Amino acid sequence: MKRTTFLLVFGLILSFCQAQSETGAEEAAGEEEQHVELFTTPVTKMGAATSDFGYNLFRVLASREAATNIFLAPISASAVLTQLSMGGSERAERQLFRALRYHTLQDPQLHNTLKDLLLSVKTPGKGLSMAARIYLARRLRVTQDFFTLVEGQYGVRPKALLGGARDMKDINDWVTQETGGKVQRFLTKPLPRNPGVNAVSAAYFKGKWVTRFGESRVLQNFQVDGGASIRIPMMQQDSYPVKMGADSDLSCTIAQIAMQDDVSMFIFLPDEVTSNMTLLEESLTAEFVQDLSLTLLPAQVFLSLPALRLSYSTDLLPLLGDLGLAEWLEDQDLEKISAQPTKLSSVNHKVVMETAPEGNQYPSVAATPSHLSYRVDHPFLYLIRDEASGALLFIGRVVNPKDLTI
Length: 406
Ligand SMILES: *[C@@H]1O[C@H](CO)[C@@H](O)[C@H](O)[C@H]1NC(C)=O
What we know:
GO terms for molecular function: serine-type endopeptidase inhibitor activity. The protein is α/β, with parallel strands linked by helices.
């Protein structure tokens, strides 16, 4: 309730600014009509499920890696763990599906729905490329049916490793190829030498804005939690059309910035300079983000946003226990992969993301500068969402942009 009231008051301020710019108001009306009802079709329900898995994964990682930069492309992790589920017993499948949030879908065509979703978010204009594949240790006697099943469904064939240093090169080359050369050095050390199953997932994101930024790399101050401010390159633009709102419960201001091909970036900027975003992290769900997006109001702002170039990698295996898979990890039942008892030995994940000032529209030049500004100049959280399906493509917490490099 409190939240609604605050947004209404905020809305009045915004509509005042809006009234001064006729063109802005028309654009906003156009966007409204395009809005797709979420959670009603099999693909959007699947979008919500993969997002909820993604938020859970992010939360677990965020709580383990307090006060650091972290990034995930959860949809690629959903893809590879779903491939893995095809190698499990009924019990294993049930447990994995629960962690992946598929259990509420009651979708008899689940794999086809996921395949459709993955294809739609990978359309080139959206700027996302990804890789997801199961690699099986050399010493494992693998059931051929598993290869055929996964390849038939997802178009990517699990691969038996040869053992030794060649494997690392083989996996890295494949990931690089699948991501258009953007995700390099996926593995930096050889895989564990046990006869296990390795789940590989990676993604590269570089979306284009709808509205371009005039200034691309102006050095600006960024206030780090508990430290001096640092100088980082920012993209800047006056009269930039965004959707905006404030959340008094979470003490942050939210901006939604449109990207091409029906993708958007949501930025959650805490009111205070803090790297502790626990409260915010805890509230993220597909439904929360969807409800929130419906309350955001169009505004033209002076926008300044860090020019991000980042790469991040982690092994998700230690996180799975906190996603309700602790019991499954003890006894994995991957009987359709091999008759020998086998286990997951790694779930490596690597993401690369870049932002660029490009967009195919120029902001409408207002006679007077924007009344509002949105300066992303201290730690923040962001997510990239495919608006058509509601699927979470990318999520990150930026605590210190100086530490980010590709
Ligand atoms: C982070 O904030 C939450 C509540 O907002 C608090 O409970 C927690 O103790 C904080 N964590 C740290 C490390 O300060």
